[in-house]
Specification:
It is built from 12 helices and 12 strands. It is α/β, with parallel strands linked by helices and about 350 residues long. The relative contact order is 0.12. Bound molecules: S-adenosyl-L-homocysteine. The site of S-adenosyl-L-homocysteine (SAH) has 17 residues, from strand 8 and strand 10.
Length: about 350
């Protein structure tokens, strides 16, 4: 169905072509508009100088769908955190993480987060609403523009739970892939895991990296850390992940935050290995990034290494991910809807 409603950003080439034609313009202007929105990152129609002047003037206030940068913090490791103002005045965070070969953007999928994991700053700040697909894509364009460099990777690991905003996240993946030409394999969706949603997601058969925030080796522990886990037994969650592998023929990444003395003991590593033996998966250990609203500690390197070694001994593929952007509060779990920040 061709939609003429809403902002220009988020529309496909076909929809943009239809839109320009409705405005009495020739079809090829649709292609130009598409290129200016998704490649050049146009913020208004007025700046698209290949368009006739009179038409541009007439449309100068037409909603394109871009946010404005409210604040930017640059961490000593070159990671940049942005506070972006949306149309309705709400603020979200996005993070740009550069390396020599890559520019990764960590995008938010919701304003705040209703899941409220005990170790995560986002949930502590409450929840406002889902983001629209174009508001997700806008974050990528904003980082691209600020770094003056093409974004190569996008991770849905900012504020929010992507699978609670299912349709918009799927649309954003399509737009990033088809309109912005970022390979699906360079996109990562990270989820806490919700009943029925993993299978539903699997059935889209996307080529994206799928990451599940496991964080605990048994149900009791998981429920303590993630309140919503009460509705989703770990056994069922892992079965659904197995089905994901069968349906998509792609492995699952399990994220496991390491909290000193809570879930990082050798017995937890053994328990986790027992769940994952023979599973086509990869474990990403994330040493806890401190937040002021919680009282956890990050384990020392030795304990982290021991945990990793136990998994390896059980033939579980594992790596440790030290988050970047720590100094700018831009690391995993440190993003918070920044009404607080601005006060
Ligand atoms: N809602 C999604 C995306 C969250 S952010 C999810 O749950 O996967 C991405 C990752 O950062 C998740 O694995 C999340 O659990 C983790 N995280 C949250 N708070 C953290 C913290 N304080 N330190 C390290 N990782 C954290």
């Amino acid at each position: 169905m061709i939609s003429t409603e809403g902002t220009l950003l988020g529309k496909s080439l076909e929809e943009l072509t239809y839109w320009v034609q409705q405005q009495g313009q020739p079809a090829y202007r649709g292609k130009q508009l598409h290129q200016w929105l998704y490649q050049k990152g146009a913020r208004s129609l007025e700046e698209i100088h290949v368009f006739p002047k009179v038409w541009r003037k007439k449309l100068s206030n037409y909603p394109v769908g871009r946010s404005t940068i409210n604040y930017r913090i640059i961490s000593p490791d070159a990671t940049r955190k942005y506070l972006l103002s949306l149309d309705d005045g709400l603020i979200i965070e996005a993070v740009g993480i550069p390396t020599t070969k890559r520019l990764t953007v960590c995008v938010s999928s919701q304003v705040g987060c209703p899941i409220a994991c005990d170790f995560c700053a986002t949930g502590k700040g409450g929840y406002d609403r889902n983001l629209k697909a174009h508001e997700i894509v806008d974050q990528v364009l904003t980082v691209q523009e600020d770094f003056q460099r093409r974004v190569s990777h996008v991770v849905f690991m900012g504020m929010g739970e992507p699978l609670l905003n299912f349709e918009a996240v799927i649309s954003a993946v399509r737009i990033l892939n088809q309109d912005m030409r970022i390979g699906q394999r360079s996109l990562t969706i990270s989820t806490v895991g919700l009943p029925q949603k993993i299978i539903r997601f699997a059935n889209y058969n996307l080529q994206v990296t799928f990451a599940v925030s496991l964080h605990a080796s048994n149900q009791t522990l998981r429920e303590k850390l993630i309140p919503s886990a009460i509705h989703y037994p770990i056994k069922q969650l892992l079965e659904d992940c197995q089905k994901y592998v069968e349906i998509t023929k792609r492995r699952v990444t399990f994220e496991y935050i390491l909290l000193e003395g809570v879930n990082d003991l050798p017995e937890h590593a053994i328990e986790l290995s027992n769940h994952l033996r023979g599973f086509q998966s990869h474990v990403n250990l994330i040493p806890y990034n401190p937040i002021k609203e919680a009282n956890y500690q990050r384990p020392n390197q030795r304990n982290t290494q021991t945990f990793m070694k136990i998994l390896q001994q059980h033939k579980v593929t594992v790596s440790v991910r030290y988050s970047r952007g720590l100094k700018a509060n831009a690391a995993c779990g440190q993003l918070q809807s920044s009404r607080l920040f601005l006060n």
